[in-house]
Amino acid sequence: MIRCPKCQTENMIGVIFCRGCSEKLDIDNITPDDVTKAAKKSNVGNIIRQTIGVLVLVAIIGLLVALFLAPPFPVVTTLEGEALTRAQKKQLFYMEHTVETDVDFTMEEFMTLARIELGLTPELVDKDAEKRSQEGTTVYLVPQEYHIVVVNENRVKLILKSEFQAFDEAIKLPVYTTLICNVVNSGEKAELEVVDASMGRIPMFGIGPAVDKMVQRHRALTDYNEPVQDFFRATKAVTVTESAVKLKRKAQAAK
After folding, report:
1. Are residues 223 and 145 in the same domain?
2. From CA 107, how far away is CA 75, in angstroms rounded?
3. How far apart are CA 239 and CA 221, in angstroms?
4. Is 141 in the same domain as 243?
């Protein structure tokens, strides 16, 4: 760069007139040292700009990766055969009991039954995807898995794994939405109070619209699911540990 002696404006090497004051520059008196110093300053500026650009790009890529990265959760075995039959008998006993009672489910039993009621067994997921394809839907989210992560006895994480599919499944991306909930036993009913949410591994930090969107995705599985609503209506209290779910059944009112 060439500094104008009149107004001190920096000008590119090779220009004749100052871009600041239009004064003619004394190019003939520029020494090689001046050019070298100007080139060094220019190179330093370019390096800084390039470094900032690379850091911004890395941050954007990291954010995109984190959005589609699976959050940590334990793998819970889906029961089959006799183990599934026993769990279903226990579920039937709980739902049809007419007096207040406690029923304990292992986490494997509870999650297997929940996936069946939510329509998230592999067979039902494939059937739903086939139905959407036949309807001609080109872009959609297919719920696939549901997981419960116990934070402590009063707080859980509900993780819904969906698959973003587009253009006849040419594009497939996993989408994980997590609700962080407090387990609230009021004495008359059990509720889950949503306190935060995350997508992939990116926390929403309580941002209202973002958390509301996560809640909608989860509630889409339960709001119009009558067996699930019956379960909520029948349950008075819930106690959750890493290995088990203890339910307290309401007494059924006399008809």
Report:
1. yes
2. 11
3. 22
4. yes
Domain that holds residue 149: 81-249
- Which one, of 202, 243, 225, lies nearest residue 71 by Cα? 202
Residues 187-224: tens digit of each pLDDT: 888 888 998 899 888 888 777 787 888 888 888 888 88
| Separation between Cα atoms, residue 205 and residue 183, nearest integer Å | 19
CA distance 72 to 70: 6
3-state secondary structure of 194: strand
What stretches of 68-190 show up as alpha helix (H) in DSSP? Answer: 81-96, 107-117, 122-134
For residue 37 the two structure tokens come to: 């110093």
Domain membership flag for residue 74: no
Neighbours of 77 (CB within 10 A): 11
pLDDT tens profile 113-144 = 998 888 887 776 677 666 666 666 566 778 88
**Nearest to residue 201, comparing CAs of 225, 181, 177?**
177
